[in-house]
Prior knowledge:
By secondary structure, this protein is an alpha+beta fold. It has helices spanning 9-21, 36-45, 59-71, 78-84, 90-97, 169-200, 212-239, 245-274, 288-305; strands spanning 103-106, 111-112, 119-127, 130-146, 152-160, 165-168, 202-203, 206-207. It contains nine helices and eight strands. The radius of gyration is 19 Å and the shape is globular. Belongs to the acyl-CoA dehydrogenase family.
Amino acid sequence: MSTDWPYTQEQRDFQETLARVLAEPPEPESEPRFPRARWAAIAEAGALALTAPDLGAGALDVVAAGDALGRGGCPGPWWQTLLVLDALPVDDAEAVMAGELVPTAGTADAMPWGASADRLFELGRHDEAGWRVRPVTLGEVREQWVSLGHEPVVAADLVPAGPEALVGTGTALLARLGLAAYLAGAGQRVLSDVVVYAGQRTQFRRRIGDFTAVAHPLAEVDAQVRAAALLARRAAYTLDGADGPRAAGFDVHVALRAAARASRQAVYQAHQTYGAIGFALEGPLSWLGQRVAQAATEAERLAREVGLVPAA
C-alpha cells in the first residue's frame, strides 16, 4: 500500500465538483445569513449525505470532502450535519441530504446557526459507545452574537423535542475526521494563497519569497499542514479497514489535534508574511483565517474531551 494514502479518481472528481461550488467565497458581511443556495449546491454534490447508512460512502470520501470544503472555506455546520444525520427521522434525513433542511448541533451556551437551522441537537456525552445527542428547540434566548468565524451563535435554554439518540462510534469518528480534513484543507488554502503573494510582493527590488526569513517559516508550516492532511487520510484508511472504529479511534484523535495545530500555524505565518493587510477586514485572511481559528478551537475541545486510546 502506498504510504501517502491516496484518493481515488472518483474522490478527486468529487473534490473538483466541490471546488467549483465554492470557487467564489461570499463577502464576510453576508456570511451570518445562512447561505442556503450554496448549501443546496454542496448537498447536490453529495457532501451532506456521506454518513447516510445506505449510501456506502467511506471515511476517505469524508476526508476528500472535508479537504475540498476547507480549501473553499465552506460556511455552515458541515461536520455537525455528518454527526446527526442518522439521528433524524427518515423524511428529515432525506431533506437534509437534499439541502432543503439544515441541522446543527451544539450546547445551551453556544448553538452555531441556532437561529437559522431547521433542526437543533444538543451534544451530550460521548464515549466508546458513541455520541449522545438530543433533538431540542430554542427556549428563552439569553444572547446572540456573530462568532470569530462569521457564524451567528445563540445561547439559549434548550427544550427537549424528542428522546436522546446514540450516534454510533463509527459515525462520531467520521464527523471528527471530517473536521480534521476541513482544517487541513483550509491550512493548505491559506498557504497556497500566501505563497502566490510572496512571489509577487517585492522589497528592496527582490521578491519577499526569496528572503529566507519568509521562505523558511512558510516551508516549515507547509510540511506541518501536509503532514496533518496525511494523518487524516491515514486515519480514513484505518477507519475503512477491517477493524473499523475499534482500530481508528486513536488515529482520528491524532489527526484532529495535528490539523488544529497546523492550520493555526498556517494562519499565523501567513499573517506574518502579509503584514498589516492580513488583519484588515477586506484583507486576504479575514474570512478564512477567522474560520480556521474557530474550527481549530472546536477541534481542540473535541480532542481534549474524547480520551480515545489505541486498540489493544
